Description:
Layout: H1 5-9, H2 17-31, H3 41-55, H4 58-65, H5 77-84, H6 94-97, H7 99-106, H8 110-115, E1 125-131, H9 133-138, E2 140-145, E3 151-156, E4 165-168, E5 184-190, E6 197-199, E7 202-210, H10 211-216, E8 218-224, E9 227-233, E10 242-245, E11 261-268, H11 275-287
Parallel strand pairs: 1-5, 7-11
Antiparallel strand pairs: 2-3, 4-5, 6-7, 8-9, 10-11
Amino acid sequence: MADDPYAILGVPKSASDEDIRRAFRRLAKELHPDLNRSSGTDERFKKVSQAYEILGDPQKRRAFDRGEIDGRGEPRRDAFRHYARGGATAGAGVDEFGFSDFFSEAFGGARGRARAGFSVKGHDVRYTLDVDFLEAAHGTTKRVTLPGGGTLDLNVPPGVADGQVLRLKGKGSRGMGGGESGDALVEIRVRSHAQFKRVGDDIMVEVPITIDEAVLGAKVEVPTVSGRVQLTIPKGTSSGRVFRLKGKGIKSAGTPEAGDQLVSVRVVLPDTIDDSLAYFFSEWRQKNRYDPGRK
């Protein structure tokens, strides 16, 4: 059968909904225009998407299995000619099944399509979109390629979290028989960052400081998602101490204020301990029996 959605997805008619979803995801990943620019993949991607538009929707799948629609989701005229010739029930007239209305209106008016039971909303389509950590923090605009080959510019709001799903109304599969289109559900995947780690709306970062900065105190530059700032390190700061930078975290949509940035400092010794430094601490140790484990 031409344009048989089962054959296109490579699944048997007995396939479960999960089998169909897995087959579609595998083929969509293999053929997506953003990932595979080989000749002919665009057309195959469109066919796979069209097949899933039928089999991924329980109502449309049942309609296809009954022979009421074809592999493109269009009503089959032949199915109704059979009834018009009296093939459905011996002695049954066309008007008994309401097909006189179908022939006059089904292929031209919404009322006829609704009577024939073909006014069905399109199913939702799912995507994943990778964004950088700072793009998620500040918001960005990304171009998304749709299964049919079209594109749309997606506004990623500031503060979007990893795993968050954005809904694009009416950007899913087309409805059948005049039904409204489904939605596009875009799951955001935020790439990790070399310095920052997000916990809720707070940002965690570790900053190295020198031994003299820890002992004597200093002002050090600290990276934040909105730029570098000065942090005052007081005298006698130990490794692991955490400083809070108020309002330097993530500002999510719908929250009254931004989170904070938590800065953990780590004392880092020089690569080479020269004689003067070693002598100083040797003398200091003789005079100061300091034991951080003693209570």
